[in-house]
Write a structure and sequence with these properties.
Distance between the termini: 22 Å
Strand content: 15-25%
Number of helices: 14
Shape: elongated
CATH topology of the largest domain: Rossmann fold
Radius of gyration: 24 Å
CATH architecture of the largest domain: 3-Layer(aba) Sandwich
Number of strands: 22
Oligomer: single chain
Helix content: 25-40%
Bound molecules: flavin mononucleotide
Strand order of the largest sheet: 1-21-20-18-17-14-9-12-13
Length: 423
């Protein structure tokens, strides 16, 4: 069956972006800009304090909409109670950055400005994303923690503040997460809002699960300056890691050399060779309920790794003897206990299904994501992938779902939905 999944969940969505009096407010201008670029309609709402940090002129200009600050501004009052009208037409509200003060007001229902009133009036089926940003001591304060917990219990999504250098020059937890993280959360919750209640409940099973993901290529040393590798960029694995984090999974990402960065709150283990990747995955394996092998491990490695630099002048040709690298997926399949084990197969279209089915059985996997090196929007490097998901049923039976080409971030959601069905 071909799964028809939307190509861009932002397109045409109405998103309220709330901004509060935090030094991180300038970052919300980039958020508005990016949401508009992705096709969303943005309604900026500022607390009076926020106007000390960013101007209404900037938020209106970037969103191409008016900015709401004053609850009682006469110009908004044309459609009855403007706040009720707005919350009933919007698809998602995000408050980024959310100050300690606003966090407390929403948790306690104190509707004394336009932003808090909107957050309180938001229907329960519309996602409310809150990205607290403040100094570490403010974030760790008992009242702030209690308010964050209350909001979580009330169904809001708290985007965990990042750790790092704060505007005060101090180091700690409390930074507003970087733009890609905020966008991942928005994408995830727009996606969840779009699917049926059953699918949503299924996908949310990812929350709280320990998930081990491998990504990127490996590099196999020839000498101290050269290596054998492949064209894997790591984009697919990083996209799965990002989506799993925004669904509330506890992610460990074992990454081969990749120029990608990931800002989510996860454990990142960097490796270079296939042997290092095997060791890192084995070290982490038993702690995880879901293991996704999306890395492109080199199949061969030089038998002898020369030290120094092999000199070009010494001979007319260089013969490398290659030996097989460890079969990491098989090894994980062998030590598997209760984990859901997911492999990737990069194949030629004509024989892809056959080979993926063989891999699924031989390597004791529960699910194989088949993608193709001979198709336009599939495989290494690009931002899109075309996947087919095979799930083990019995020795002679499997479930197959074919997907249309999608951005890798949406492929990631589809893969996580398929995995969640096995939990
Ligand atoms: C320069 C400056 C930076 C501030 N940064 C933050 C911040 O990052 N997080 C925070 O919770 N409060 C911060 N505050 C304090 C808030 O602005 C203050 O608590 C205000 O009442 C918040 O109001 P609001 O939530 O209605 O926007 C800052 C204050 C100043 C003067």
């Amino acid at each position: 069956m071909v799964q028809n999944t939307r190509k861009n969940v932002f397109e045409g969505k109405k998103i309220v972006v709330g901004i509060t009096g935090s030094i991180a407010a300038y970052k919300s201008l980039f958020l508005i800009r990016e949401l508009v670029r992705k096709g969303a309609e943005v309604f900026p709402v500022l607390t009076p304090s926020a106007t000390n940090f960013v101007t209404e002129l900037a938020t209106s200009n970037l969103s191409r909409n008016s900015t709401i600050v004053d609850m009682f501004d006469k110009s908004y009052q044309s459609k009855g109670a403007w706040h009720i009208d707005l919350v009933h037409q919007c698809d998602l509200m995000i408050i980024a950055p959310c100050s300690a003060a606003t966090l407390g007001k929403i948790a306690n229902g104190i509707c004394d400005n336009a932003l808090v009133t909107l957050a309180i009036a938001l229907p329960r089926n519309v996602p409310l994303l809150i990205a607290p940003a403040m100094d570490t001591s403010m974030w760790e304060n008992t009242a702030t923690q209690r308010n964050a917990k209350t909001l979580l219990e009330q169904g809001a999504v708290i985007i965990p503040p990042a750790k790092g250098e704060l505007s005060s020059g101090l180091y700690g937890e409390g930074r507003l997460p970087e733009l890609p993280v905020l966008l991942d959360y928005i994408q995830t919750y727009l996606y969840l809002a779009e699917i049926s209640t059953e699918r949503k409940a299924n996908l949310l099973k990812i929350k709280g699960k320990n998930i081990l993901i491998s990504a990127g290529p490996t590099q196999e040393k020839i000498d101290d300056v050269r290596f054998i590798s492949n064209f894997s960029s790591g984009k697919m694995g990083y996209a799965i890691a990002s989506s799993a984090c925004s669904l509330g999974g506890n992610v460990t990402l074992v990454s081969g050399p990749s120029c990608l960065t990931i800002e989510h709150n996860l454990k990142l283990v960097k490796v270079v060779s296939s042997n290092e990747m095997l060791q890192a995955l084995k070290d982490e394996f038993l702690e995880n309920q879901i293991v996704i092998m999306s890395s492109a491990v080199a199949d061969f490695t030089p038998k002898i790794k020369s030290s120094g630099k092999i000199k070009k002048e010494k001979s007319e040709e260089l013969v490398l003897n290659l030996i097989k690298t460890p079969d990491i997926l098989s090894e994980l399949g062998r030590i598997k206990k209760n984990q859901v084990l997911v492999g990737f197969a990069l194949e030629e279209s004509s024989e892809g299904l056959f080979n993926a089915w063989k891999k699924l059985k031989q390597k004791n996997c529960d699910l194989i994501v088949l993608n193709y090196f001979d198709r336009e929007q599939s495989g290494f490097a690009g931002d899109f992938n075309t996947i087919t998901v095979l799930k083990f049923k019995s020795e002679n039976e499997m479930n197959i779902n074919y997907y249309e080409p999608m951005e890798k971030s949406l492929c990631a959601m589809a893969i996580l939905e398929e995995i969640a069905e096995l939990l």
